[in-house]
Amino acid sequence: MVAAARPFSSSSSSNESLDEELQRLAGYQQTSVSLKASLDTGLGLLLPQDSQETGLNVRQRTLIQIATFLRRELPVRLARRVIELQNLPEGLHAMPSVQRVREWYIQSFVDLRRSRLPVDPETEAEFSQLLEKIYERHAPTLITMARGVYELRTTLAKERGDSFQFSEVTSIHEFLDKFYMSRIGIRILIGRACRDCRDCRDCRAITVR
C-alpha cells in the first residue's frame, strides 16, 4: 500500500530560500510504495471513485494520478540526496565531479517545484516532458560519481602517502551503496507505477534515472 505522505505546498514561501526549502522537504518521510500498489496504480485500480465524471478515460486519469504523485514525491527524494551530497565523508563532497552531480539534483528539484500541477492531459504531458529532461540530465550520474571518487582517491593518496588504502575507507563505500540504492529506488518507483502503459510515449517519458 502507499503510505500516507505528509502534505506540503507546491511552492515555497516567498520568504523561504532554496536552501531552506531543500532542508524542509528533506525532513519529510519518503512514501513507501509496495509493488502491488504500484501495479494497481498502473492498472487504474486506485483511481478515486468521484473522478469518473471528469470526461477523461481511465488511461488519462491514471497518468494524471501517477504524475501528481511523482510531482509530490520526487522533490522529497531529490532534496534528501542534495543534503547528503553537501556533507560527505573524507571531503568527497568537495570533489568537482560530486559537486556537478549535486547541481543536477538541485536543478531537477527546482524544475519539479516550479512545474504546474498535473490536472488534465495538457499539464500531464507537460510534466512528462519535464521528467524526460530530468532523465537526460541525470544520465551521466554513475560515471560522474565514479570520477568524483577517483578524484578523492588521488587527493587522499597524495596527502597520506603510498601506504594509504582507499578500500579501507568504509564510510565512502557505505555512502555510495546508499546513494546508488536510492537511484535504483526512484527508477523502480516510476517504472512500476507506469507498468500498464509503459509502451506509450507518455510513459516512456516518465522514466527517471
If you had to describe this structure to a student in words, what would you say it looks like?
This protein is mostly helical and 209 residues long. It has a single domain (18-204), classed as Butyryl-CoA Dehydrogenase, subunit A, domain 3 (Up-down Bundle), CATH 1.20.140.20. 62% of the residues lie in helices and 0% in strands. It contains eight helices and no strands. Helix 3 (58-85) packs antiparallel against helix 7. The longest helix has 28 residues, at 58-85. It is elongated. The two termini are 24 Å apart. Residues 1-12 and 193-209 have low confidence and may be disordered.
CATH superfamily: Alpha-ketoacid/pyruvate dehydrogenase kinase, N-terminal domain
Overall spatial form: elongated
Q: Mind describing the biggest β-sheet?
A: none
Termini Cα gap? 24 Å
Total number of strands: 0
Please state roughly what percent of the residues sit in beta strands, choosing from under 5%, 5-15%, 15-25%, 25-35%, 35-45% or over 45%: under 5%
Instruction: Point out poorly predicted stretches.
Output: 1-12, 193-209
Tell me the radius of gyration: 19 Å
CATH architecture: Up-down Bundle
Could you spell the SSE succession in H and E letters?
Answer: HHHHHHHH
CATH classification class: Mainly Alpha
SSE layout:
Elements (H helix, E strand, L loop, with lengths): L17 H9 L8 H8 L15 H28 L10 H19 L6 H18 L2 H20 L9 H24 L7 H4 L5
